[in-house]
Design goal:
Length: about 140
């Protein structure tokens, strides 16, 4: 799914020739984003490209359609939060509790059920299904 404003964009007039355009149009579930190829590997910012007059009216070869999730992953690659920022984020969550109605709903949803997994999928059930074993899936290790 591509934004309806794509025809009004100033980045590229020939957006139909951009790589992955057909996939983006055919996909009705996920949002696709028009992305500059120069922004990723060289740590160039949008502001830098605008200053150099390389952001608007570019050739379709310099652009690519990415899914929103891919775009977020690529854009945030290598970025880390400073310790002070992490502390501020964690401080905002201190002392906040879920309302009693939410806690009750979560408790009753799994009342009398246990976790089972088959190595790929984890489910809650009252009895262990065939091919499953009791317990949670192991956590994925960060690379």
């Amino acid at each position: 799914m591509v934004s309806k404003n794509i025809e009004k964009n100033k980045i590229c007039k020939e957006y139909k020739q951009v790589e992955n355009y057909e996939k983006a149009i055919a996909d009705k579930e996920e949002l696709w984003v028009l992305h500059h190829r120069k922004l990723v590997p060289s740590k160039v910012t949008k502001k830098d490209l605008i200053e150099r007059n390389e952001f608007y009216d570019v050739a379709p070869e310099e652009l690519i359609f990415l899914t929103r999730s891919e775009h977020m992953r690529v854009s945030n690659e290598g970025k880390t939060y400073d310790k002070s920022v992490k502390d501020k984020i964690s401080q905002t969550k201190v002392g906040k509790k879920r309302p009693q109605s939410v806690r009750d709903a979560l408790r009753y949803a799994h009342l009398g059920k246990h976790r089972y997994n088959n190595g790929e999928v984890e489910i809650w059930a009252t009895e262990c299904p065939l091919g499953f074993k009791p317990g949670m899936l192991p956590r994925k290790k960060n690379k």
